[in-house]
Write a structure and sequence with these properties.
With 303 residues, the protein is an alpha/beta fold. The chain is built from 12 helices and 8 strands. An 8-stranded parallel β-sheet has the order 1-8-7-6-5-4-3-2, with helices on both faces.
Length: 303
C-alpha cells in the first residue's frame, strides 16, 4: 500500500491529537454515557483526531474488555467526524488482537505504546513494531517513542519493511534529541507528533513536528486549537502566550514524575461537572488544596 493511501491518516496526525480520558462510574466501571458525552464535547469543539486507550485514558489500568469497550465507544461516537488512532500495546499477540479489533471497527490508525518490558533492545524494538504493523497493513501505524536510546536509523529500518508506519509520537523530553532523531529517520518520511503535549509543542514544532498530543484538550479544546493555529502560522509569540496560559496546569500534571498527569485533567473535568474525579491505582486523586487550584484554572479558561 503506497503512502498516498494514508493521506487522510497523515493529515489527522498533523493536528491536535486528543487523548480522551476514560471516566468511571460510582461502581468503578467505565461510565459509558459520560464517555460518549465527553467525546461529543471534543468533536463539537473542533477536534478531529482521537486516541482511545492512550495514557490519559489510563490504558494500563484498563482490562482487555474495557480497552475494547473504549475503542468501540470512540469509533461509534466519532463516526465520520474524526480519525481514530487506537492505542495498542502489551505483549505482541495482545497488541495484534487490539489492532485487528480496531481495524474491524473501522479505525484508521493504531498507536503502539512504548514496550514496558524492562529489557528492550533496539533490534527487538523493531521486531515488536514490525509484528504489529505487518498484522494490519491497511492501518497507519504510529510508534509512541519514550526511549531516549532509540536511534532514528531504527525507525527508518522499521518503515523500510512496513510502509504503513507513517507517523511518530515522540515523547522524549529533549528537543535537540528529537531534531536529530527526526532527521536521522527521515524528516519528510514521517508525520512527527510532539508526544509531550502543549508544553513541548513550540520547541518540537520549531524542529519539524506538525502535530501534538493533548490531554488538556479534554478540558479546553479551544485552548489547544489556539496553540496549533499559532504554530501552523509560525507565530511563536502567540503560541507562547497560550503556553503561559496552560503552564501551571501542565506543571501540576508533570510534578513528581507525572504522578498526577491524568488526575489533574479529571479533576478539572469534575470541577466543570463533566465527569467524576476518580482515577485507578497507581494514580490517585488530588488533595483538597490542589483541587481548588485546578478548579480555578479550569474556570479561568471560561469554557
Amino acid at each position: 500500500m503506497s503512502s498516498v493511501a494514508f493521506e487522510t491518516q497523515r493529515a489527522a496526525l498533523a493536528d491536535v491529537v486528543a487523548i480522551p480520558v476514560t471516566p468511571f462510574a460510582e461502581d468503578g466501571s467505565v461510565a459509558r454515557e459520560t464517555h460518549r458525552a465527553l467525546l461529543r464535547r471534543l468533536l463539537d469543539g473542533g477536534i478531529t483526531t482521537l486516541t482511545p486507550n492512550g495514557n490519559t485514558g489510563e490504558f494500563y489500568a484498563l482490562t482487555p474488555e474495557e480497552r475494547r469497550l473504549v475503542t468501540e465507544l470512540t469509533i461509534d461516537e466519532a463516526g465520520d467526524r474524526a480519525v481514530v488512532l487506537v492505542g495498542v500495546g502489551h505483549d505482541v499477540p495482545t497488541a495484534v488482537a487490539s489492532a485487528r479489533h480496531a481495524r474491524e471497527l473501522g479505525a484508521g490508525m493504531v498507536m503502539v505504546h512504548q514496550p514496558v518490558h524492562p529489557y528492550v533492545s533496539q533490534a527487538g524494538w523493531v521486531d515488536y513494531h514490525r509484528a504489529i504493523a505487518e498484522a494490519v497493513p491497511e492501518l497507519g501505524v504510529v510508534p509512541y517513542i519514550r526511549n531516549a536510546q532509540l536511534t532514528g536509523a531504527r525507525l527508518a529500518e522499521l518503515a523500510d519493511t512496513c510502509p504503513n508506519v507513517i507517523g511518530v509520537k515522540y515523547a522524549v523530553p529533549d528537543a535537540a534529541r528529537f531534531a536529530a532523531f527526526a532527521r536521522d529517520a527521515g524528516l519528510e518520511r514521517f508525520v512527527w507528533v510532539a508526544g509531550l503535549a502543549e508544553p513541548y509543542a513550540p520547541s518540537y514544532f520549531s524542529a519539524g513536528a506538525t502535530g501534538f498530543t493533548s490531554g488538556l484538550v479534554n478540558v479546553a479544546p479551544a485552548v489547544s486549537l489556539n496553540m496549533i493555529e499559532a504554530l501552523r502560522s509560525g507565530d511563536y509569540p502567540a503560541a507562547m502566550k497560550v503556553w503561559e496560559q496552560i503552564r501551571r496546569f501542565e506543571e501540576l500534571r508533570a510534578a513528581n514524575g507525572s504522578a498526577d498527569n491524568v488526575t489533574v485533567v479529571k479533576e478539572a473535568l469534575a470541577s466543570l461537572g463533566l465527569c467524576r474525579r476518580e482515577v485507578r491505582p497507581p494514580s490517585r486523586t488530588l488533595l483538597e488544596e490542589q483541587r481548588v487550584e485546578v478548579a480555578a484554572i479550569a474556570a479561568g479558561w471560561s469554557i
